[in-house]
Amino acid sequence: MQVFFDRTLENEFEKIYTKFKSIELKDDEAYQLDLNYLEKKLQVFEPCSSKCEREDFNSAAIDGSGAESIVSLNDISIHLLTAAFAADQTSFEEGTTKKIEISPPVCTHPEGITRLVLLREDKKEEVWDEFKDFILYNYNEDLLDIVTRVLRDIVATAYKLKHPEEALPKLDKEANIRMAAITIGLNLYKDEFKKFALWMVSPRANAPRGWFEQFREVLEYSVANALLSSEEHFKYIFLDGSMNMLMSPGQKQPRLASNYLLRDINLKANEKETCVIAVSKTTTFPFIYRLAQDLEKKLGKEKKWFTRIPTKEREKYTLNILKDRPHIPPAYGVTYLFHFSSEVPILRIDFDEKWWEENIFSEDKEKEKENELEVFQDIDWLARDVRYFGYFFDLAFAHNTTIVRFRDRDDVADRLIDYFAEKGENPKMFIHPRKRLGLI
């Protein structure tokens, strides 16, 4: 259909703009209060020069992509999944970085991994079996072991906070984990850990798109897990997205399988003294565009700054504009906003809460600021590649490697159909009806 730029479309423009402004006006008072708070907490900083005396370190980044339903037949769909990484070592004296040559066993090619997944609608048990096998094959651990380890850590951490003087009870079995949780009033779901399909949130069996996202996240976290298991030590590992945990009100137990892998990665990273950083360049943080405009007017467009988002537990304060955003900051995470330049949107930066408490937090607030500054100067330096100015270049490299373009998707689909044909299947069955009819 051709779109005509007539009066009708102009009316649509007007309606949308009116609604946009009404949203701003409705919450303007709350925003102004928050702006005043954030201005007081803002930390403007001077970046390190391109060439400087600073201890070199390794960093890596992971991103995932794919193509949903590259081939489908009635209730069967086949999905293409990819995940890629980039790893570099800084060379501060030279003002550049050097690529780290590393190939984790899980990877199918030097920079990442490619997988195909077949899903069938209305077969919930089959989907879950496929999903668990996918985790075992790529993450190299059984989902039950991951869930048990994460819940053990959640209960142990809560127990220490509640009874700091007491010895930690034995948490070797599910029954013991549950007993300790009961004694400190921590709610865990009633179903057995291993009965994932009963208590975990998952897409409907006939919703392959939702499953596609979960499989893709597993692949990304599998690459991160492999990097952490390698002989290389990384000071930072970047993930594309946020640290959000899907939680039910009043409970501390995540409800997504992929969230358990994310928590597990952070636990392992802390043991390796690695900082996992989740980066959101497009975020649901409300009024972040106004925040950028207002602070650029006051501070200057190219000033670099960061600010931590308060929580009720730490600051006894929450932002008014986040009242309908309970997952910002996320459970088990600490959120910052980071302004690099007027050419780049404000980035949301999430750190693991445990890492933050051990490496950033201090009762001495000046020391805490010094700790924050060191990290943000590091990651600011990693965002000054001229090709991806203002965005962490390893994340950009990973993204460019993993992204599946239409021609690649079509090529994989055609080759897969040819393979089916070689096995004696009718290739027409697997070609989309619209394509067969010449409609696409």
For this entry, give a set of tags.
440 residues, alpha+beta, 2 domains, 10-stranded mixed β-sheet
Describe the structure.
The protein is 43% helix and 18% strand. With 440 residues, the chain is α+β, with helices and mostly antiparallel strands. Strand 3 and strand 4 form a beta hairpin. The longest helix has 22 residues, at 208-229. It is globular.
Question: Care to give the gist of this entry?
Answer:
The chain is of the alpha+beta class.
State which percent range the strand residues make up: 15-25%
- Helix count equals 14
Structural shape = globular
* First-residue to last-residue Cα separation: 14 Å
Give the helices and strands as they follow along the chain: HHEEEEEHHHHHEHEHEEEHHHHH
Give start-end ranges of low-pLDDT stretches.
Answer: none
* Rounded Rg: 24 Å
Class by alpha and beta content: alpha+beta
**Total number of domains:** 2
Beta strands, count: 10
State the helical fraction.
40-55%
